[in-house]
Protein backbone atom coordinates (compact mmCIF):
# COMPACT_ATOMS: atom_id res chain seq x y z
CA UNK A 1 0.00 0.00 0.00
CA UNK A 2 2.77 2.35 0.97
CA UNK A 3 4.59 1.38 -2.19
CA UNK A 4 1.49 2.10 -4.20
CA UNK A 5 1.02 5.51 -2.60
CA UNK A 6 4.66 6.21 -3.12
CA UNK A 7 4.30 5.27 -6.77
CA UNK A 8 1.30 7.54 -7.25
CA UNK A 9 3.16 10.37 -5.56
CA UNK A 10 6.26 9.87 -7.65
CA UNK A 11 4.20 9.64 -10.82
CA UNK A 12 2.44 12.85 -9.91
CA UNK A 13 5.76 14.52 -9.18
CA UNK A 14 7.14 13.31 -12.48
CA UNK A 15 4.05 14.58 -14.28
CA UNK A 16 4.42 18.01 -12.68
CA UNK A 17 8.13 18.07 -13.49
CA UNK A 18 7.64 17.18 -17.14
CA UNK A 19 4.73 19.57 -17.53
CA UNK A 20 6.82 22.32 -16.02
CA UNK A 21 9.74 21.52 -18.28
CA UNK A 22 7.58 22.05 -21.35
CA UNK A 23 7.36 25.77 -20.66
CA UNK A 24 4.65 28.33 -21.19
CA UNK A 25 1.29 27.52 -22.67
CA UNK A 26 -1.20 29.96 -24.14
CA UNK A 27 -2.61 32.07 -21.30
CA UNK A 28 0.41 31.68 -19.02
CA UNK A 29 2.03 34.67 -17.36
CA UNK A 30 5.51 35.41 -18.71
CA UNK A 31 8.53 36.31 -16.61
CA UNK A 32 10.66 39.19 -17.85
CA UNK A 33 14.27 38.65 -18.93
CA UNK A 34 17.40 40.76 -19.16
CA UNK A 35 19.56 39.77 -22.11
CA UNK A 36 22.49 41.32 -23.97
CA UNK A 37 21.59 42.94 -27.28
CA UNK A 38 23.88 43.23 -30.32
CA UNK A 39 24.30 46.95 -29.50
CA UNK A 40 26.04 46.03 -26.23
CA UNK A 41 23.09 47.02 -24.01
CA UNK A 42 20.83 44.79 -21.98
CA UNK A 43 17.19 44.48 -23.03
CA UNK A 44 14.20 43.71 -20.81
CA UNK A 45 10.54 43.84 -21.70
CA UNK A 46 10.18 46.26 -18.78
CA UNK A 47 12.14 48.75 -20.91
CA UNK A 48 9.04 49.06 -23.13
CA UNK A 49 6.19 49.87 -20.73
CA UNK A 50 3.96 51.39 -23.41
CA UNK A 51 3.65 48.40 -25.73
CA UNK A 52 0.51 46.30 -25.99
CA UNK A 53 2.66 43.20 -26.10
CA UNK A 54 5.67 41.63 -27.78
CA UNK A 55 6.55 39.26 -30.56
CA UNK A 56 9.31 37.15 -29.02
CA UNK A 57 11.08 35.08 -31.68
CA UNK A 58 13.69 32.49 -30.75
CA UNK A 59 16.10 32.91 -33.62
CA UNK A 60 19.72 32.44 -34.60
CA UNK A 61 22.21 32.97 -37.43
CA UNK A 62 22.83 29.51 -38.81
CA UNK A 63 19.41 27.93 -39.30
CA UNK A 64 18.18 27.98 -42.92
CA UNK A 65 14.58 28.20 -41.70
CA UNK A 66 15.47 31.36 -39.78
CA UNK A 67 17.29 32.79 -42.78
CA UNK A 68 14.19 32.11 -44.88
CA UNK A 69 12.15 34.15 -42.40
CA UNK A 70 14.53 37.04 -41.61
CA UNK A 71 12.99 39.44 -44.14
CA UNK A 72 9.51 38.57 -42.88
CA UNK A 73 10.64 39.18 -39.29
CA UNK A 74 11.79 42.66 -40.32
CA UNK A 75 8.49 43.33 -42.11
CA UNK A 76 6.52 42.11 -39.10
CA UNK A 77 8.38 44.47 -36.81
CA UNK A 78 7.99 47.40 -39.18
CA UNK A 79 4.26 46.72 -39.47
CA UNK A 80 3.40 45.81 -35.88
CA UNK A 81 5.85 47.73 -33.67
CA UNK A 82 3.95 50.98 -34.41
CA UNK A 83 0.77 49.09 -33.45
CA UNK A 84 2.23 48.12 -30.08
CA UNK A 85 3.78 44.74 -30.86
CA UNK A 86 7.56 45.05 -31.40
CA UNK A 87 9.74 42.03 -32.22
CA UNK A 88 12.44 40.85 -29.83
CA UNK A 89 14.67 38.15 -31.34
CA UNK A 90 16.46 35.87 -28.87
CA UNK A 91 19.33 33.57 -29.84
CA UNK A 92 19.05 30.58 -27.45
CA UNK A 93 21.85 28.45 -28.88
CA UNK A 94 24.97 27.46 -27.04
CA UNK A 95 27.67 29.29 -28.95
CA UNK A 96 30.28 26.59 -28.41
CA UNK A 97 27.97 23.90 -29.73
CA UNK A 98 27.05 26.20 -32.62
CA UNK A 99 29.90 28.68 -33.25
CA UNK A 100 27.99 30.31 -36.14
CA UNK A 101 25.60 31.70 -33.51
CA UNK A 102 28.26 33.48 -31.46
CA UNK A 103 27.58 36.94 -30.11
CA UNK A 104 30.11 38.53 -32.48
CA UNK A 105 28.51 36.83 -35.49
CA UNK A 106 25.07 37.91 -34.24
CA UNK A 107 26.35 41.49 -34.46
CA UNK A 108 27.56 40.85 -38.01
CA UNK A 109 24.19 39.37 -39.05
CA UNK A 110 22.20 42.16 -37.39
CA UNK A 111 24.28 44.72 -39.26
CA UNK A 112 24.04 42.91 -42.60
CA UNK A 113 20.27 42.67 -42.35
CA UNK A 114 19.89 46.00 -40.57
CA UNK A 115 17.55 44.45 -37.99
CA UNK A 116 15.17 47.13 -36.70
CA UNK A 117 14.51 45.04 -33.55
CA UNK A 118 16.72 43.89 -30.63
CA UNK A 119 18.64 40.68 -31.29
CA UNK A 120 19.66 39.41 -27.87
CA UNK A 121 21.53 36.35 -26.64
CA UNK A 122 20.28 33.89 -24.02
CA UNK A 123 23.89 33.33 -22.99
CA UNK A 124 23.10 31.24 -19.88
CA UNK A 125 20.33 29.35 -21.70
CA UNK A 126 17.94 30.13 -18.85
CA UNK A 127 15.24 31.97 -20.80
CA UNK A 128 14.34 29.58 -23.61
CA UNK A 129 13.47 26.69 -21.22
CA UNK A 130 11.01 28.95 -19.38
CA UNK A 131 9.27 29.65 -22.67
CA UNK A 132 9.53 26.02 -23.69
CA UNK A 133 11.07 27.01 -27.01
CA UNK A 134 12.34 23.94 -28.87
CA UNK A 135 13.53 25.29 -32.19
CA UNK A 136 14.47 28.32 -34.23
CA UNK A 137 12.40 30.07 -35.43
CA UNK A 138 9.84 29.66 -32.63
CA UNK A 139 7.43 32.52 -32.02
CA UNK A 140 5.69 33.57 -28.79
CA UNK A 141 3.17 36.40 -29.05
CA UNK A 142 2.73 38.12 -25.69
CA UNK A 143 -0.11 40.45 -24.75
CA UNK A 144 -0.33 42.86 -21.86
CA UNK A 145 -2.85 41.98 -19.18
CA UNK A 146 -2.80 44.65 -16.46
CA UNK A 147 0.74 44.52 -15.08
CA UNK A 148 1.39 41.11 -16.56
CA UNK A 149 2.39 39.78 -19.93
CA UNK A 150 0.63 36.62 -21.04
CA UNK A 151 1.19 34.22 -23.91
CA UNK A 152 -1.42 34.66 -26.65
CA UNK A 153 0.03 32.56 -29.46
CA UNK A 154 2.84 30.02 -29.90
CA UNK A 155 4.24 28.70 -33.13
CA UNK A 156 5.09 29.65 -36.67
CA UNK A 157 5.11 33.00 -38.47
CA UNK A 158 3.04 31.65 -41.36
CA UNK A 159 2.37 28.47 -43.28
CA UNK A 160 5.09 28.59 -45.93
CA UNK A 161 8.72 28.87 -44.87
CA UNK A 162 10.09 28.71 -48.36
CA UNK A 163 8.10 31.26 -50.28
CA UNK A 164 6.48 34.30 -48.71
CA UNK A 165 4.41 34.84 -51.83
CA UNK A 166 2.80 31.38 -51.46
CA UNK A 167 1.64 31.94 -47.88
CA UNK A 168 -2.02 31.08 -47.35
CA UNK A 169 -2.30 31.68 -43.61
CA UNK A 170 -0.37 34.40 -41.81
CA UNK A 171 -0.66 32.74 -38.39
CA UNK A 172 1.24 35.38 -36.41
CA UNK A 173 -0.21 38.48 -38.12
CA UNK A 174 -3.71 37.01 -37.72
CA UNK A 175 -2.99 36.31 -34.06
CA UNK A 176 -1.88 39.92 -33.48
CA UNK A 177 -5.03 41.22 -35.19
CA UNK A 178 -7.15 38.93 -33.01
CA UNK A 179 -5.41 40.06 -29.82
CA UNK A 180 -5.86 43.71 -30.78
CA UNK A 181 -9.58 43.06 -31.08
CA UNK A 182 -9.61 41.33 -27.69
CA UNK A 183 -10.17 37.92 -29.23
CA UNK A 184 -8.34 34.65 -28.74
CA UNK A 185 -6.20 33.75 -31.75
CA UNK A 186 -7.38 30.76 -33.72
CA UNK A 187 -5.21 28.76 -34.11
CA UNK A 188 -3.37 29.75 -30.95
CA UNK A 189 -0.70 27.05 -31.43
CA UNK A 190 0.91 26.05 -34.72
CA UNK A 191 3.88 23.93 -35.66
CA UNK A 192 6.73 24.27 -38.09
CA UNK A 193 9.99 22.60 -38.94
CA UNK A 194 12.96 24.32 -37.41
CA UNK A 195 16.46 23.83 -36.06
CA UNK A 196 16.56 22.32 -32.61
CA UNK A 197 18.06 24.56 -29.95
CA UNK A 198 21.71 23.67 -29.39
CA UNK A 199 22.98 22.80 -25.94
CA UNK A 200 26.28 21.37 -24.74
CA UNK B 1 22.85 -15.93 -69.34
CA UNK B 2 23.71 -18.38 -66.55
CA UNK B 3 25.81 -15.67 -64.96
CA UNK B 4 22.84 -13.30 -64.98
CA UNK B 5 20.71 -15.83 -63.11
CA UNK B 6 23.47 -16.31 -60.60
CA UNK B 7 23.60 -12.56 -59.97
CA UNK B 8 19.82 -12.53 -59.68
CA UNK B 9 19.80 -15.24 -56.99
CA UNK B 10 22.73 -13.74 -55.15
CA UNK B 11 20.84 -10.47 -55.04
CA UNK B 12 17.83 -12.19 -53.52
CA UNK B 13 19.96 -14.08 -51.03
CA UNK B 14 21.64 -10.98 -49.69
CA UNK B 15 19.03 -8.47 -48.56
CA UNK B 16 21.61 -5.81 -47.68
CA UNK B 17 22.49 -5.57 -51.32
CA UNK B 18 18.99 -4.49 -52.24
CA UNK B 19 18.79 -1.77 -49.62
CA UNK B 20 22.24 -0.55 -50.63
CA UNK B 21 20.82 -0.18 -54.10
CA UNK B 22 17.97 1.88 -52.66
CA UNK B 23 20.34 4.81 -52.36
CA UNK B 24 21.29 4.98 -55.94
CA UNK B 25 21.86 8.68 -55.49
CA UNK B 26 20.34 9.68 -58.80
CA UNK B 27 17.12 8.34 -57.46
CA UNK B 28 16.27 10.13 -54.21
CA UNK B 29 12.51 10.51 -54.36
CA UNK B 30 10.86 13.79 -53.45
CA UNK B 31 7.42 13.42 -51.86
CA UNK B 32 4.76 15.66 -50.44
CA UNK B 33 3.29 14.50 -47.14
CA UNK B 34 0.36 12.61 -48.63
CA UNK B 35 2.70 10.68 -50.90
CA UNK B 36 5.06 10.05 -48.00
CA UNK B 37 2.63 9.18 -45.21
CA UNK B 38 2.41 5.44 -45.99
CA UNK B 39 5.92 5.19 -44.55
CA UNK B 40 4.44 5.95 -41.14
CA UNK B 41 1.84 3.18 -41.32
CA UNK B 42 3.59 0.16 -42.82
CA UNK B 43 1.92 -3.08 -41.85
CA UNK B 44 4.58 -5.72 -42.08
CA UNK B 45 6.61 -7.72 -39.58
CA UNK B 46 9.52 -5.27 -39.91
CA UNK B 47 10.58 -2.65 -37.41
CA UNK B 48 10.71 0.81 -38.95
CA UNK B 49 13.15 3.49 -37.84
CA UNK B 50 12.14 6.77 -39.49
CA UNK B 51 14.56 9.63 -38.87
CA UNK B 52 13.73 13.24 -39.77
CA UNK B 53 16.89 15.18 -40.59
CA UNK B 54 18.53 17.72 -42.86
CA UNK B 55 22.08 18.30 -44.07
CA UNK B 56 22.06 21.73 -42.39
CA UNK B 57 21.05 20.29 -39.00
CA UNK B 58 24.28 19.67 -37.07
CA UNK B 59 22.87 17.31 -34.40
CA UNK B 60 21.11 15.33 -37.16
CA UNK B 61 24.35 14.90 -39.06
CA UNK B 62 26.08 13.86 -35.86
CA UNK B 63 23.68 11.01 -35.14
CA UNK B 64 23.51 9.57 -38.68
CA UNK B 65 26.49 7.20 -38.13
CA UNK B 66 24.69 5.84 -35.04
CA UNK B 67 21.59 5.05 -37.11
CA UNK B 68 23.75 3.51 -39.81
CA UNK B 69 25.51 1.38 -37.23
CA UNK B 70 22.17 0.16 -35.89
CA UNK B 71 21.02 -0.64 -39.40
CA UNK B 72 24.22 -2.50 -40.29
CA UNK B 73 23.90 -4.58 -37.14
CA UNK B 74 20.19 -5.37 -37.29
CA UNK B 75 19.02 -5.14 -40.88
CA UNK B 76 18.99 -8.92 -41.13
CA UNK B 77 16.57 -8.84 -38.16
CA UNK B 78 14.02 -7.00 -40.26
CA UNK B 79 14.96 -3.48 -39.21
CA UNK B 80 14.20 -0.91 -41.90
CA UNK B 81 15.86 2.49 -41.80
CA UNK B 82 14.40 5.50 -43.54
CA UNK B 83 16.06 8.92 -43.52
CA UNK B 84 13.51 11.63 -44.26
CA UNK B 85 15.40 14.69 -45.45
CA UNK B 86 13.76 18.06 -44.84
CA UNK B 87 16.31 19.87 -46.95
CA UNK B 88 15.02 22.36 -49.48
CA UNK B 89 14.36 20.46 -52.74
CA UNK B 90 16.43 22.87 -54.81
CA UNK B 91 19.45 21.62 -52.83
CA UNK B 92 18.87 17.95 -53.64
CA UNK B 93 21.55 17.83 -56.32
CA UNK B 94 23.96 20.32 -54.79
CA UNK B 95 23.85 19.31 -51.12
CA UNK B 96 21.79 16.25 -50.27
CA UNK B 97 23.07 13.75 -52.82
CA UNK B 98 26.75 14.68 -52.35
CA UNK B 99 26.18 14.35 -48.59
CA UNK B 100 24.62 10.88 -48.93
CA UNK B 101 27.55 9.78 -51.12
CA UNK B 102 30.12 11.24 -48.77
CA UNK B 103 28.57 9.58 -45.70
CA UNK B 104 27.97 6.39 -47.71
CA UNK B 105 24.48 6.18 -46.22
CA UNK B 106 22.89 2.76 -46.57
CA UNK B 107 19.52 3.54 -45.02
CA UNK B 108 17.01 4.63 -47.61
CA UNK B 109 16.72 8.40 -48.08
CA UNK B 110 13.67 10.29 -49.28
CA UNK B 111 13.12 14.03 -49.36
CA UNK B 112 9.90 15.34 -47.83
CA UNK B 113 8.89 18.55 -49.55
CA UNK B 114 5.71 19.89 -48.01
CA UNK B 115 5.54 23.47 -46.79
CA UNK B 116 2.23 22.95 -44.92
CA UNK B 117 4.14 21.83 -41.86
CA UNK B 118 1.42 22.88 -39.43
CA UNK B 119 -0.85 20.35 -41.12
CA UNK B 120 1.50 17.40 -41.36
CA UNK B 121 3.70 17.68 -38.24
CA UNK B 122 0.90 16.59 -35.87
CA UNK B 123 0.10 13.69 -38.21
CA UNK B 124 3.59 12.35 -37.53
CA UNK B 125 3.22 12.92 -33.79
CA UNK B 126 0.77 15.04 -31.83
CA UNK B 127 3.47 16.34 -29.46
CA UNK B 128 6.12 17.18 -32.04
CA UNK B 129 6.80 20.92 -32.33
CA UNK B 130 8.79 20.45 -35.54
CA UNK B 131 12.34 20.61 -34.18
CA UNK B 132 14.77 18.20 -35.79
CA UNK B 133 16.32 15.71 -35.31
CA UNK B 134 13.31 13.57 -34.51
CA UNK B 135 12.73 9.85 -34.92
CA UNK B 136 9.72 7.57 -35.13
CA UNK B 137 10.24 3.91 -34.28
CA UNK B 138 7.37 1.51 -34.85
CA UNK B 139 6.22 -1.94 -35.67
CA UNK B 140 2.82 -3.57 -35.44
CA UNK B 141 2.82 -3.56 -31.61
CA UNK B 142 4.95 -0.56 -30.75
CA UNK B 143 5.03 3.10 -31.69
CA UNK B 144 7.17 5.76 -30.08
CA UNK B 145 8.27 9.19 -31.23
CA UNK B 146 11.56 10.66 -30.02
CA UNK B 147 11.77 14.44 -30.47
CA UNK B 148 15.47 14.49 -29.64
CA UNK B 149 18.87 13.15 -30.58
CA UNK B 150 19.49 9.44 -30.16
CA UNK B 151 22.79 7.62 -29.71
CA UNK B 152 23.58 4.10 -30.90
CA UNK B 153 23.26 2.78 -27.34
CA UNK B 154 19.85 4.38 -26.90
CA UNK B 155 18.71 3.09 -30.28
CA UNK B 156 19.86 -0.40 -29.50
CA UNK B 157 18.12 -0.32 -26.14
CA UNK B 158 14.86 0.65 -27.84
CA UNK B 159 15.16 -1.73 -30.75
CA UNK B 160 16.49 -4.91 -29.13
CA UNK B 161 13.35 -5.87 -27.16
CA UNK B 162 11.27 -5.30 -30.30
CA UNK B 163 13.13 -7.71 -32.53
CA UNK B 164 11.31 -10.92 -33.29
Quickly describe the structure.
The complex is a heterodimer of chains A (200) and B (164). Chain A is α+β, with helices and mostly antiparallel strands.
Please outline the helices and strands.
The complex is a heterodimer of chains A (200) and B (164).
Chain A: H1 2-21, E1 35-37, E2 42-43, E3 53-58, H2 64-80, E4 87-91, H3 103-113, E5 119-121, H4 127-131, E6 135-136, E7 138-145, E8 148-155, H5 171-180, E9 194-196
Parallel strand pairs in A: 3-4, 4-5
Antiparallel strand pairs in A: 1-2, 1-5, 3-7, 6-9, 7-8
Chain B: H1 2-13, H2 15-22, E1 29-31, H3 33-36, E2 47-53, H4 58-74, E3 79-85, H5 92-103, E4 108-112, H6 117-124, E5 131-132, E6 134-138, E7 143-146, H7 152-159
Parallel strand pairs in B: 1-4, 2-3, 3-4
Antiparallel strand pairs in B: 2-6, 6-7
Helix pairs in contact in B: 4-7
Structural summary, described in words:
The complex is a heterodimer of chains A (200) and B (164). By secondary structure, chain A is α+β, with helices and mostly antiparallel strands. Chain A has one domain (26-196): Glutaredoxin (3-Layer(aba) Sandwich). Chain A has five helices and nine strands. Chain A has helices at residues 2-21, 64-80, 103-113, 127-131, 171-180; strands spanning 35-37, 42-43, 53-58, 87-91, 119-121, 135-136, 138-145, 148-155, 194-196. A seven-stranded mixed beta sheet of chain A has the order 2-1-5-4-3-7-8, covered by helices on one side. A two-stranded antiparallel ribbon of chain A has the order 6-9. In chain A, strand 7 (138-145) and strand 8 form a beta hairpin. The termini of chain A are far apart. The model of chain A is unreliable at 13-20 (pLDDT under 50). Chain B has 164 residues and is of the alpha/beta class. Chain B has one domain: Glutaredoxin, CATH 3.40.30. Helices cover 42% and strands 20% of the residues of chain B. In chain B, helix 4 (58-74) crosses helix 7. The model of chain B is unreliable at 10-21 (pLDDT under 50). Classes of the chains: A alpha+beta (200), B alpha/beta (164). Chain A binds chain B through residues 62-64, 97-98, 134-135, 138, 155-156, 159-163, 166, 171, 187, 190-198, and chain B through 54, 56-59, 86, 88, 115-118, 121-122, 128-133, 147-149. Strand 9 of chain A pairs parallel with strand 5 (131-132) of chain B.
